[in-house]
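User: I'm preparing a small set of examples for a lab meeting where we compare how different chains pack in three dimensions. I only have the primary sequence for this one, and I'd like the structure in token form so I can line it up with the others. Please keep the answer compact; I'll paste it straight into my notes.
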Amino acid sequence: MSKLKSSLLSLVVLLLFCQSTYARYAAIVVDVETGRVVHEVESTHRWYPASLTKVMTVYMTLVAIESGHLQLDDMLTVSRHAALQPNSKLGLVQGQRISVENAIKAVTTRSANDAAVVLAERLGGTEGNFAAMMTRQAHSLGMYNSAFRNASGLPDEGQISSARDLAVLSTALIRNFPRHYHYFSLTEFAYKGRVLPNTNKILKTYPDADGLKTGFTCGSGYNLIASAKRNGHRLVAVLLGGHSSAERFNQMGNLLDLGFEKTAAGNLGVPLVQLHDNNVEPPPFQLAFNRCAGSAEQMGADIDHGERHAAIHIKPDHPGPRLQQVAVKPAKHRPPPTRSSRASKHTGDKWAVMLGDQTRKVDADAKLSQTRRHLGVLAKTGQPRVVGHKVKGKQVWRTLWTGLAQSEASSFCKKLRTKNQDCTVLPG
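Assistant: Understood. Below is the structure token output for the 428-residue chain.
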């Protein structure tokens, strides 16, 4: 066997043993006082944060207020870029002025994209500059798996976080800005003669909840951060990837119940700061069905062909008092079968294609994004992978597409070569 074939075979064997599946959902509960993890499921799995991004936008705003660089009653002028933001929005128009405090309230209660951009432009000059500031702030807090591209959470393949990182942010918000946390507890927002209700229904459905934030995009699913205080004891919980708004709120209630039960029993895990990310998977596209199918197609994600998604089920053994209880049982955490996984039952899809090595993980992620665009509908088969390994003692990141039949691997490379992209077929 040639040295090249031996190396390729070793790589294929490594992939077959090291591949991890996409998370069906991600969740974490943290005890704020001790900073310890109470419960977690796939909490370091990379995820699109959607409007949970706005927690960081407000965090940055509060940093500026506490440092004296911004005042709550400062008036901000709405730019054309801010006014053109898509829903959800407050309906601001170019040239209009809004106070810092009202912009914060619009973000925390209505998840207003236009108000978020107004704050971003005031602090960063441009939204792009502000996003870079957000990323630096995230890393300084220990959110090592997060990167931001905008202030609102609107879809962007480079905008990623994780349940663990969002828990780090939320606990920092509560600890560092106790005087301003009430903005995330508001049940309504009065603005220009209108009384606008908070979209975060957990504030009404869970007795002990007193904040934080909702989020939704087709890629992320229905996300939620919630904080609750019972008998003077505070928890922060993050749930990512709900398949409906109702599921998000119901299962968050179960997640908080489970958290309070475990903390009452003294069942605490490792400190949150010690929970490290060992996952190299790109974020899943969570809702690739119905009205989200078009978005999934554009991003090269697998499209649901009618299979029912397993519901998220989180249930404590002895639930605490609730306004509403959902009787559920644990579910297996696996993605719905894709076209390639169904085919593998018959053909044993063990072929892969190698797209090259990058010295930075962010460049490897960008390579996969570029590959998705080049592949078009072909990207709906197999699984994209980023695998870290050493070359002459230096860390590099290898980009691959695995789980393919031989004919699919050949088609992949044929298509990519027409785009002047390197591609090597790895035999099964």
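A couple of notes for your slides: The chain has a mean pLDDT of 81. The CA atoms of residues 36 and 270 lie 5 Å apart.

User: Perfect, thanks.
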